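retry 2 of 3: previous attempt timed out while embedding nicotinamide-adenine-dinucleotide. Reduced batch size to 1 and resubmitted. Inputs unchanged:
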Amino acid sequence: MRKLLVTGGAGFIGSHTCAALTDAGFSVVIIDDLSNSSADSICRIKEITGVEPFFYKADIRDRETLDRIFSEHSIDAVIHFAGLKSVAESVAEPMKYYRNNVFGTMQLIDAMENAGCKKLVFSSSATVYGDMNTPPYTEDMRVGAVNPYGQTKLMIEQMLMDLCESDTEWSVAALRYFNPVGAHKSGLLGEAPFGTPSNLVPCIADTLMGKQEYLSVYGNDYETADGTAIRDYIHIMDLAEGHIAALREYNDKYTGFRAFNLGTGCGSSVLEVIREYERASGMKIPIVFKPRRQGDAAVSYADASRAENELHWKANLGLSEMCLDSWRYVSQSNV
Ligand code: NAD
Ligand code: WQD
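retry 2 succeeded.
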């Protein structure tokens, strides 16, 4: 059985991917410091799959623990989710982001080299397309960052490209996620961010659960059909499957660095998401229109054809499943 190391495997995307990996027959070793997640998700992975993942509660910057993991397990490849992801926090505390995301990745790469493990799937982001491109975004477009969080993703991608240039045994797939939402069908795993959320779907959930009086809709004067901003929302389980496709269709077959967009290729407006979530929950979502949020693009969606052609992966679930599955998790677990 192939064994994978999953950094940040207790988090939102990591936990769903670990469940999908386990169901697909991989053995999973998780390292997570639980700075933005709880050990509950490890128990939930076991409840869903019947298999308990190996779990190390540790920071990826802790080289000793990384070396110990590689010596205790025969790791075939690494999926690297661990990182901080709040845009606003990255503006307020940039060094925290460079230290965690960039230095953390450097420690991981060193430990992998030391262990002779040279297959990596890295969690990148559509944020690397910055504000100078017109959607749909293709992987060959120029990249640029508009905040320190985005800058860490770009720096890591560059570092990984240089690494692959210098040593042709490395295989790195950088997956540029668009807007992951939804939850596992079981209602056992979902998105449970610490603190006040800033992403749309967690804010909708908080409003319905009475944690927010109303949902702020940032901007209704964009040049879009209903005036609200458009994003490429992707179901978390489709995203999870994208990692398995990347391992099998890229890392197992090719070396070098390659970026892949993981999105649906379709955009939905903020009001469309709200309407769909109202349908899923059977509840009315109170909204208040507010000015545009600083730094927000009007429209963002992927050209997902590279992943379809090369990884033979494509998103199958639509906005209605995303909202139904999110609501099932939120209403069942009262997060
Ligand atoms: P998350 O916060 O739910 O998961 C990240 C996990 O990493 C958490 O469990 C956290 O405790 C852990 N972690 C953070 N720093 C660590 C460290 N130094 N050592 C060990 N563990 C650490 O976030 P997520 O939404 O699951 O995102 C996973 C990855 O995907 C991140 O790298 C993020 O930047 C990237 N990404 C997320 C989105 C999104 O919208 N959710 C979009 C694009 C890219
Ligand atoms: C979506 C739309 C908001 C909340 C962010 C990061 C990006 C990536 C994914 C990691 C926007 C609007 C939101 C609310 C609203 N993360 N909105 N009311 O901004 O596309 O991307 O998460 O890599 O880097 O920037 O996602 O969910 O925050 O916003 O009207 O209460 O919903 O203005 O138009 P975004 P989001």
